[in-house]
Amino acid sequence: MAKGIKTIGILTSGGDAPGMNAAIRSVVRKAISNGVKVKGIKKGYQGLLNEEISDMDARSVSDTIQRGGTILGTARCNEFKTEAGQQKGADICRKHGIDGLVVIGGDGSYRGAQAMSRHGINTIGIPGTIDLDISCTDYTIGFDTAVNTAMQAIDKVRDTSSSHERCSIIEVMGRNAGFIALWCGVANGAEDILLPEKYDYNEQNIINNIIRNRKKGKTHHLIINAEGIGHSTSMAKRIEAATGIETRATILGYMQRGGSPTCKDRYYASIMGAYAADILCAGSSNRVVAYRHGEFVDYDIEEALAMQKSISEYEYEISRMLAI
């Protein structure tokens, strides 16, 4: 076998995302089919430093593909951001015979993977984040489930908003990226969509839009607000005071992270997991798996982290046009 990979370690890092278990399952079973042993690392980089490491086999991942979250657990780890922590992590990998590592997570997890590669551990990243904010890939594990969960919840809130002739502000996740807000805004027929990348913080424009629509005969008004803008409750109070229209805020929060993954998240995560195991066994390191222009590919981590991603101007304009 190229580069002599004998044992792969696998961990999930950062925020959990539906579909991570499908990726874990696929890495484990593909590696075993390649004649490579697999060790699971609990609680991300923190678990690595604590040596929470155990053997995995094909049965270890049975009955997991439909489960949300991550069976390996995840945690934040400030120690691993230091050079000493990274060296310790690499030494622990060698101590446990791990010569290849698969890391499932976002950009922060990739920087940890990059550090492990620097310290001599062949490492591959898989994009796992509901925010869709990894620049090198058109798909990230968990986004499809999260956006469908949010869409269904917004439909329910909209029903009662319509019944009471209210204005509703619904806050979805997305600290620095507005993809969930944009998709839900279009899919739920929102009158206003507030994105971190686009919002000018001019509430008067929103107020004017609400009043204008009410004069046209619209009996309710839906605003999708991204987490990165936030302050939905205070915004609702200001809008109600300015318009005289009953306004309520709903913050969907962490419910968007949970739940059984959609077919797309299970399928894509499974292919990405197998792809990661294959390129790792073939001797690749410091790479990230991506889905780009309809194909599963891989990039150098430095190249991936240097890429920029933004909201499509065309898609944003379409979202505004559809709200007329």
TrEMBL record:
Similarity comment text for this entry = Belongs to the phosphofructokinase type A (PFKA) family. ATP-dependent PFK group I subfamily. Prokaryotic clade 'B1' sub-subfamily.
Question: Per the UniProt entry, what species is this protein from, by scientific name?
Answer: Candidatus Eisenbergiella merdigallinarum
Q: How is its activity regulated?
A: Allosterically activated by ADP and other diphosphonucleosides, and allosterically inhibited by phosphoenolpyruvate.
User: Which cell locations does it reside in?
Assistant: Cytoplasm
Positions with a binding annotation for Mg(2+):
107
Classification via Pfam families: PFK
Protein name as it appears in the record: ATP-dependent 6-phosphofructokinase
Tell me the keywords, alphabetical order: Allosteric enzyme, ATP-binding, Cytoplasm, Glycolysis, Kinase, Magnesium, Metal-binding, Nucleotide-binding, Transferase
Q: Which residues cross the membrane?
A: none
Q: Where does ADP bind?
A: 25-29, 158, 189-191, 216, 218-220
Binding of ATP: at which residues? Answer: 15, 76-77, 106-109
